[in-house]
Amino acid sequence: MGAGSEVLGLDDEMSRDxxxxxxxxxxxxxxxxxxxxxxxxxxxxxxxRGHPVxxxxxxxxxxxxxxxVQTVDSLLATRLGFDPRRAPxxxxxxxxxxxxxxxxxxxxxxxxxxxxxxxxREALSWYPEEVWRHVIACDWQRIDQELPLMQRxxxxxxxxxxxxxxxxxxxxxxxxxxxxxxxxxxxxxxxGTLFTRLPLPSEVAPALSHTLLATTWQERAACLxxxxxxxxxxxxxxxxxxxxxxxxxxxxxxxxxxxxSMVPRLLDSIRDPAVRTLPAGLGSIEQRSDNVDLLTRATHxxxxxxxxxxxxxx
Length: 314
Known about the structure:
By secondary structure, the chain is mainly alpha-helical. The chain has 15 helices and eight strands.
């Protein structure tokens, strides 16, 4: 478990140049933490089969044992800020990033005699149905807001601006793809790698790649339209309200945008009052910000989410 690339099964030889060595997480009752950590520190050697047992970390250069002995509750406090096994609220779910969940669910568990980790990982398998529809609607709304801007910027001769907006749209579309496949999205370094493994229509990934390579705004718009129409069709085939084609003409301009019925259809299908009353378009914390220092700290994520909702009430 944790933030290392090995948790996702994506580490390679280069991954060993920092924060690398023999590691393990042990989850025990609170009364056993101090005793077990002391015992392991005394008994374990500095190396095992040529690999370091004690080593420094980025931001923590002290050479010491890197076996974590902790409680499941302490893991939840630092990684999530709540216990998903105990009736989490919609706000709890929206405070999650995909990476935070993957740091708990993606790695291998060797033994779980008490069943705590198994129940925790099962609880984090995916969003509740109606929270899921809410965040899907948010991504479509984000795409709709910027798709005409990408075309307008290019039409006015701002090719750089058009490219920047296109890249933002590709990122949001990829996030939407993860949502539609019920897969937690990793942080940006591994997002493209795992995106290409999603069970999506075959034209989606090539269309997004071509969007980034396109030399004209018209070509960018056409490629994005191909990807978005395919995702909208995929969405409907899996029982989620949709509009197809997703991209339709934008007023009298030679641009496209997301069909006006897409977001309302998704939001109107939500029945849970706690989810229906959430502000449309804000979504989860990772849909609101890409700030690394915010997204990697559970307390910051939850505070920012709460504060932004208070702001919408004033």
